[in-house]
Amino acid sequence: MGASTVRAPLTRGVFSIYCSYPRLKSNPLYFSVSLASSVQQVRRAAAASMSYDKQLAAAKKAAFLAARLCQKVQKALLQSDIQSKSDKSPVTVADYGSQALVSFILEKEFPSMPFSLVAEEDSEDLRREETRGTLVRIKELVNDTLASNGMNDISPLSEEDVLDAIDRGKSEGGPHGQHWVLDPIDGTKGFMRGDQYAIALALLDEGKVVLGVLACPNLPLTSVTSYDRHNSQDKVGCLYFAQLGAGTFMQSIDGSPPRKVHVSATTNPEGALFFESFEAAHSSHDLSSLIVKKMGVKTPPVRMDSQAKYGALSRGDGEIYLRFPREGYREKIWDHAAGYMVVAEAGGIVTDAAGNPLNFSRGRYLDLDTGIIVTNQKLMPALSKAVVESLKERASSLQS
């Protein structure tokens, strides 16, 4: 069943709902939220007969290997004094190494299929003579990671192999065909601090996200609210994976049996916990504070880097995630595709600030209204209302 066979019934079904309920016709905001929820539910149902099991297995393998590479680099980083993202910094090596590994593994797993990868990095800087040393380090790191994780049957990659693998991430994506979407290290500053980061990998099919994998090497296996980094019993390292119509699962990166996870069922905003970006430059903390105050949320925010926030929310660590970047900033699809799928398949809703579903079919960028809001189905109407009121209030204050 292709996307075209789903589109018409979906449109008629939503239109019928709209016409049948006066509440929706009289309240566009409520209808927008209901539409986002309905679209996600119908897409999951329509995909139930389609299987992406092979792609999911390959994605998990690629994300696992990339996580191993990043863990090794971060350990060395934290033992040094380097804290910048210059061409020779460890975080740059990990970024490129992670992308090269994921690209290489995915193409190797599906040699007879057209390969398209939408990713953050390209090799232009690495092809300069002055960065040759960095390229050598990346090549060695990629080959060491492959060899130390049971892939001794693969011939070592050359420098040109690594550059080519990185450059396969230049695809523009779009509404047709299948496209992998990768952020090789989401949460660069968290990575440098020794905090949260994620390897985020998703697959688009005809413009729709059909699977997502989040490898979060520093995310605790228990709730982030109860985690004690000084307690050796509190283990870290989570791998989330979700396939359209099949739910969301979490396991340890070390390979514990996966368990199905679900977003929080909390209905009372007072007890809701909300996530936002650690860096104020990535999202307006003041606006988030105003929104949750209008909702009646009493708890302080949990600030965290990367799409690890999506993972934590998918298993019920909190109820709300708000992201409102600076004006003029364009969200990239790799910053949200995997996290979107992980939360949506766990029963949550992800929309822009106007309640519209996220559209990943328009290339490398997400064209959306103002920001991104995430929560469970029960809290979404109240959250959307608070967002609209807060944005109007902020606009009025800027004009006065």
From TrEMBL:
GO molecular function per UniProt: 3'(2'),5'-bisphosphate nucleotidase activity; inositol-1,4-bisphosphate 1-phosphatase activity; metal ion binding
Family matches, as Gene3D superfamilies: 3.40.190.80, Fructose-1,6-Bisphosphatase, subunit A, domain 1 (3.30.540.10)
Positions of Mg(2+) binding: E120, D183, I185, D186, D335
Keywords, sorted A to Z: Hydrolase, Magnesium, Metal-binding, Multifunctional enzyme
CDD domains assigned: PAP_phosphatase
Any single GO BP term: sulfate assimilation
InterPro entries in alphabetical order: DPNP, Inositol_monoP_metal-BS, Inositol_monoP_superfamily, Inositol_monophosphatase-like
Organism domain of life: Eukaryota
Name of a matching Pfam family: Inositol_P
Needed cofactors: Mg(2+)
Claim: Magnesium is one of the keywords in the record: yes
E.C. code: 3.1.3.7
Enzyme superclass (EC): hydrolase
Pathway(s) where this gene product acts: Signal transduction; phosphatidylinositol signaling pathway
Recorded family membership: Belongs to the inositol monophosphatase superfamily.
Protein name per UniProt: 3'(2'),5'-bisphosphate nucleotidase
Source organism per UniProt: Olea europaea subsp. europaea
